[in-house]
Amino acid sequence: MTAINIAIIGIGNCASSLVQGLDYYREGTNDTIGLMHWEVAGYKPSDIKVVAAWDVDSRKVGKDVAEAIFAKPNCTAIFAPNVSATGTIVRMGAVLDGVADHMGDYKDERTFIVANDTQPSKADVVAELKRSGADVLMNYLPVGSQEATEFYAECALEAGVAFVNNIPVFIASNPEWAAKFEEAGVPIIGDDIKAQLGATIVHRVLTDLFAKRGVKLDRTYQLNTGGNTDFLNMSNHRRLASKKVSKTEAVQSVAAERLEDDNVHIGPSDYVPWQNDNKVCFLRMEGQLFGGVPMNLELRLSVEDSPNSAGVAIDMIRCAKIAKDRGLKGVIDPASAYFCKHPRTQMTDDIAHAEVEAFIKAA
């Protein structure tokens, strides 16, 4: 198989974990740890190459991606400390609404230092995507970056590059945008990546279990804390509106009956700096068993947030590439439903798993 050339928007914690992972799993090493698929339609993790990258932080712009992933304010776990140079230099990205005003109120090591470099036009980004031979464009912009996400989505359309939307700005699940990708003949997977074993997937599985076992779910909450730039960004609640919609709908969609708004609370909750990239989820579910007898469940989940999504991202990249190989266009529903919180078409996770396995195996 040929290599899968990827371009990355945003060299933050998630990109750091992804790039570290490509080194960690190179040449078949550690292949039994933490991957849902070692091979997808002939593609292995080692086939993925980073050929273009954009960021807006002065500590990352101008550096090789392998160096930039360890620059501040990144604070995720370092599990592959000696990542080989990629030969790809991080370019200055388009700021637009990608940096929230309140981020300037915090120490530099916790937030962005926006570079003074000239920001690219759409033509600049499209030209770089074409020059680099990128197959897939990965969107890792901060939550709430509506304008910036649309800017890069348009670049993907013009360049004919598959788009993987890892954040809760609705592109794949927006009918107008879905139609644009269909018309352009470009595949898209999204929206809002679902971690390997994170708060959303655990909450969904338990909600589905309640439904299948005949337990009436009366009310539930999911409270999350973390100390990375994602949680700091979302401490401005105006930026997390779509995130709350995405996470809430992911759970509501598998419930036996939709809960009233007052009986469900799901979403990011607080920024705790010393947690860094560790995310802690507090989950509670209250319901009724046989005879209306009450029950409740409480769970605490602690995970390193960014590595928890990187293995999923590797599968999304490979699914986007095989969609492109097969001449598919528009939203790739099986991959979107299995790997994302807010796909165009919601499915229970067991059905989505079966659909994505069938998609991978299709000729």
Task: Provide the helix percentage.
Answer: 25-40%
Mean pLDDT comes to 96
Biggest pleated sheet = 7 strands, parallel
Q: Give the overall shape.
A: globular
Cα(first) to Cα(last) distance is 15 Å
Order of helices and strands: EHEHEHEHEHEHEHHEEEHEHH
What is the alpha-carbon Rg in Å? 20 Å
Q: In total, how many beta strands?
A: 11
Overview of this protein structure:
- By secondary structure, the protein is α/β, with parallel strands linked by helices.
- The protein is built from eleven helices and eleven strands.
- The strands form two sheets. Strands 3-2-1-4-5-6-11 form a seven-stranded parallel beta sheet, sandwiched between helices. The protein has a four-stranded mixed beta sheet with strand order 8-7-9-10.
- Strand 9 (278-288) and strand 10 (294-304) form a beta hairpin.
- Helix 1 packs across helix 9 and helix 3 (122-132) packs across helix 4.
- The longest helix is centred in the C-terminal third of the chain and has 19 residues, at 307-325.
- It is globular.
Structure in a nutshell:
This protein is an alpha/beta fold and 363 residues long. The protein contains eleven helices and eleven strands.
Give a quick set of tags describing it.
7-stranded parallel beta sheet; 4-stranded mixed beta sheet; 33% helix; 11 helices; 363 residues; alpha/beta
Give the helix/strand layout.
Blueprint: E1 4-9, H1 13-24, E2 48-55, H2 65-68, E3 91-92, H3 122-132, E4 136-139, H4 146-159, E5 162-165, H5 175-184, E6 187-189, H6 199-212, E7 216-226, H7 229-233, H8 241-252, E8 264-271, E9 278-288, E10 294-304, H9 307-325, E11 330-331, H10 333-339, H11 349-361
Parallel strand pairs: 1-2, 1-4, 2-3, 4-5, 5-6, 6-11, 7-8
Antiparallel strand pairs: 7-9, 9-10
Helix pairs in contact: 1-9, 3-4, 6-8, 10-11
